[in-house]
């Protein structure tokens, strides 16, 4: 019996069946489901959080820098409405060394959007992206979001995947994709090992209001504990990703408003005038992991389930969206050729396409973090010399901007802004 026949046959046995079962309806899983659903595939998404709880401001205070290739993908999926998303273009990025209370040294790296003729990226609150995704998911007739729902058991057979939800419902599909985040219970269950390590750092995230306009400039200040990113938002507001030594983080998180503001001000340059935090604080333990493989029998990993990286360059979600672009293209091409979506050679194409990019980005961000998160004079001199060189050589600078923008290697259709 072909996989297709088996799959269709199972429609009677299972309460719900689809071509693809996506476990995890976060930013990556939801985008993947939308891409596949728009191309006509039947998609089941199992997410253990109820949608309304993931869009309240207290759930996730992060603002994501969205590279320009990722913007093209979101446009192609009709998820990009700059006004609704309150997207803030990033025109320039300025990188400097600095010390706490000592302010920033003169910048050693300046990326100017004028050199590539397009904003270097956009900043969007994760919550706004989630709202856009929920709206799109609800409008797609072939996508079923099962949330809140938990997976109790999954069985991978030669022709299909059968799963049982905690509430007893049976679901089946031809292929199962784990987009269940960096701790991915499903990746562990399938037995895919990953390599990686924890950073002795946390990322503290909060939003500040400031006196002077930011002029759409993102600032990256390298302090001894790690990068301190000041990311422009609409209005006189910026989102901070403040990398701090992990052992200091609980103390900083517990400070009262006045002392927290003083600690913030000690790390800021004065280019924005007076600053004051608005809204809650979050802290995220930082970790790197890379799954040893992206695929197994009738199974694939996407997003943080496959790779989680240091947020130093704001690239984790962009990597996940590149997974979405490649995986959806591979699956839609297979569907059009009448192939089994879970066939090893179909999944191998995805693995080949994505393996290098994620590993390269993980290692590059790890090296930059190691080089910058310290105050050793020889390392300070080496990085100033290295990045000063990038700043002086225009083609090198444009190469860096292209890489950060997401135009790398063989670019999938969605990342070019084309339909699948
Ligand atoms: C401080 C910080 C700043 C960052 N800034 C940027 C940035 O500027 N730009 C950028 O590109 N990236 C950034 N990132 C990285 C980015 O946030 C992540 O890469 C991205 O959120 C990963 O999305 P995901 O959908 O793969 O995983 P997640 O967001 O972790 O989603 C996983 C989903 O799976 C669900 N789930 C988990 N287990 C189960 C289960 N058993 N059953 C059902 N559902 C389950 C969860 O509820 C969740 O909804 C940053 C990260 C940090 C920590």
Describe the structure.
The protein has 420 residues and is an alpha+beta fold. It has one domain: 3-Layer(bba) Sandwich (FAD/NAD(P)-binding domain), CATH 3.50.50. 36% of the residues lie in helices and 30% in strands. The protein has helices at 3-13, 27-38, 68-76, 82-85, 126-139, 185-190, 249-254, 257-267, 316-336, 344-372, 377-392, 394-405; strands at residues 16-23, 43-46, 63-67, 88-90, 92-99, 103-104, 109-112, 121-125, 143-146, 151-156, 161-165, 170-178, 194-210, 217-223, 226-233, 237-245, 275-291, 295-296, 299-301, 307-308. The strands form 3 sheets. Strands 5, 6, 7, 13, 14, 15, 16, 17 and 20 form a 9-stranded mixed sheet that branches. Strands 1, 2, 9, 10, 11, 12, 18 and 19 form an 8-stranded mixed sheet that branches. A 3-stranded antiparallel sheet has the order 3-8-4. Helix 2 runs parallel beside helix 5 (126-139), helix 2 runs parallel beside helix 9 and helix 9 (316-336) runs antiparallel to helix 10 (344-372). It is globular. Residues 1-12 have low confidence and may be disordered. Bound molecules: flavin-adenine dinucleotide. The site of flavin-adenine dinucleotide (FAD) has 33 residues, from helix 2, strand 3, strand 13 and helix 9.
Top keywords for this entry?
single chain; about 425 residues; alpha+beta; FAD/NAD(P)-binding domain; 9-stranded mixed sheet; 8-stranded mixed sheet; 12 helices; disordered N terminus; binds flavin-adenine dinucleotide
């Amino acid at each position: 019996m072909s996989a297709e026949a088996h799959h269709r046959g199972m429609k009677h046995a299972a309460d719900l069946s689809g071509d693809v079962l996506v476990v995890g309806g976060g930013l990556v899983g939801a985008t993947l489901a939308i891409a596949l659903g728009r191309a006509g595939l039947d998609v089941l998404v199992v997410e253990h959080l109820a949608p309304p709880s993931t869009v309240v401001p207290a759930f996730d205070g992060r603002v994501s820098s969205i590279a320009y290739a990722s913007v093209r993908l979101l446009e192609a999926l009709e998820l990009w409405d700059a006004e609704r998303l309150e997207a803030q273009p990033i025109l320039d990025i300025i990188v400097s060394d600095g010390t706490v209370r000592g302010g920033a040294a003169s910048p050693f790296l300046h990326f100017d959007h004028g050199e590539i003729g397009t904003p270097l990226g956009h900043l969007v609150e994760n919550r706004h992206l989630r709202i856009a995704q929920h709206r799109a998911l609800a409008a797609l007739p072939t996508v079923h979001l099962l949330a809140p729902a938990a997976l109790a058991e999954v069985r991978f057979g030669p022709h299909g995947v059968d799963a049982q939800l905690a509430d007893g419902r049976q679901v089946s599909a031809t292929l199962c994709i784990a987009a269940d985040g960096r701790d991915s219970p499903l990746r562990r269950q399938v037995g895919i090992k990953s390599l990686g390590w924890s950073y002795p750092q946390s990322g503290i995230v909060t939003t500040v209001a400031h006196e002077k306009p930011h002029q759409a400039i993102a600032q990256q200040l390298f302090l001894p504990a790690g990068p301190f990113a000041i990311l422009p938002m609409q209005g006189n507001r910026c989102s901070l990703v403040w990398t701090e030594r992990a052992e200091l983080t609980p103390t900083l998180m517990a400070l009262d408003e006045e002392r927290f503001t003083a600690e913030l001000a000690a790390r800021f340059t004065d280019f924005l005038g007076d600053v004051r935090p608005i809204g809650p604080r979050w802290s995220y333990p930082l970790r790197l992991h890379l799954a040893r493989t992206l695929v197994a029998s009738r199974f694939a990993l996407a997003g943080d389930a496959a790779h989680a990286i240091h947020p130093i360059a704001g690239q984790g979600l962009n990597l996940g969206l590149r997974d979405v672009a490649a995986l959806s293209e591979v699956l839609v091409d297979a569907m059009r050729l009448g192939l089994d979506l879970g066939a090893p050679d179909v999944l191998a194409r995805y693995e080949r396409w994505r393996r290098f990019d994620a590993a390269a980005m993980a290692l590059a961000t790890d090296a930059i973090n190691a080089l910058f998160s310290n105050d050793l004079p020889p390392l300070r001199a080496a990085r100033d010399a290295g990045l000063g060189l990038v700043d002086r050589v225009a083609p090198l600078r444009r190469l860096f901007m292209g890489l950060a923008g997401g135009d790398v290697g063989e670019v999938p259709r969605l990342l070019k802004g084309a339909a699948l």
